[in-house]
Amino acid sequence: MSDALLVDGVRKSFGKLEVLRGIDLALAEHEVVCLIGASGSGKSTLLRCVNLLEPVDAGRIVVAGEQITGRGVNVNRVRRRIGIVFQAFNLFPHMSVLRNVTLAPREVLGRSRQEAEAAALELLARFGLADKAREYPDRLSGGQQQRVAIVRALAMQPDLMLLDEVTSALDPELVAEVLAVIRELAEGGMTMLIATHEMSFARDIADRVCFLDDGVILEQGPPGQMFGAPREERTRQFLQRIVQAGRL
Amino acid sequence: MFVVAIGVLITRSPGWDEVKETFFNWDVFKDSFPEIAEAFLLNVKIFLIAEIFILVFALMLAVLRSLRGPAFFPLRALAVVYADFFRGVPTILVIAVLGFGAPALQLEGVPTDVVFWGIVSLVLVYTAYVSEVYRAGIESVHPSQDAAARSLGLTHGQSLRFVVLPQAVRRVIPPLLNDFIGLQKDTALVGTLGAVEAFNQSQIDASATFNYTPYLAAAVLFVAITIPLARFTDWLVARDRRRQLAAAGR
Hints:
The complex is a heterodimer. By secondary structure, chain A is of the alpha/beta class. Chain A has a single domain, classed as Rossmann fold (3-Layer(aba) Sandwich). Chain A has nine helices and ten strands. The N and C termini of chain A lie far apart (about 35 Å). Chain B has a domain at about 45-195: Orthogonal Bundle (MetI-like fold). In chain B, α3 (about 25-65) packs antiparallel against α9 and α7 packs antiparallel against α8. Classes of the chains: A alpha/beta, B mainly alpha.
């Protein structure tokens, strides 16, 4: 069986700055992989490359056996199968929560309004947002907005979810409710690639943790090993700084 | 204070009695007003017809300029040249060239009505201005909105239609109204082609009575439309600012 996601020798530069310097990574179906590493280590760029929001300079990305990098790829079709949730939520402020969630199912998948809204309401209810369906994003807390953003991505029934530091913009007391949602997704078998600064969460939820350093995956392994006995000196230094900051 | 001083200066001036008679003659005003008001309906008509086309064409032009990728370079370049040219040329020149030139070609099927060509000229010029307003609005929508839309599988066109343009247009309504005010005034330029709109009618009345008061009547009519429009624009701007402050304070 092919991997749910295969990243093979991916390189990406912005001008002279080489952000990704040969990334190799494979996710099996239902696997949850957390990307950790300092700001600027390339976590977000890697996620944006997987979703084709950034074209890669070299290497290839394969989703469920289909290569999505290179010429002649229908990016719109690829993106339907890959959900991404951003640090800053990026909800559409001029649309109600319900419209935010139903826009893509209706316009991209051609679902009828009734069908899309019924599915959306069910998802919203599942994540405790049923009473927010008619609200506009600016009436919601950050945690609620981020949960709506997750529901919006889920409404497309993606095979793979990419989460880009989804709790970094939240007040501390709102982090837990978003993490609970992600945990539920993991338990439901969703394949996920998660860039995060929440180390204890990563330790809890990840099947595997990858430490990104200067554009390469320096070390990876099960969370117990990564947090308990990292092999690389750079990983140890990074985790030590996290512990000193009281984040682990 | 300053206004009072100017007022005193003018009313004490040696020529004031004569100016008062030729510019502020109540009887002439009363006589000429109904006729000019009727002619003013043509200004309103020109304004309304031109406005619809301007709003549509300018949006198309702005969208052309927002297209990325080398394939669209010729279209983008064309849009830039168009906007630069028609913002650079005085409106009255465009009106004169088209209004006198186009009918003179005597081509079959080409209208010879000066009002038609006046409207075409205003549409050409104002489309250039208004497209810049739209463009500013499109650029003010953060790229992350487009990224979010595209990440859900929406095409570039769908992202524009459902996500970017609705936000962009909402933000530029005040500057758009500002351009409407300019357009409403510039409808008077069509009078230079001989169309009997308010300005031309007041000119006719002025030369018939050897009195300039009809101009004042025309001015009153224009101001009666443009001032409420200006106040409405201010109100919208103030309301938007209040909303932004309220949102930021949360």
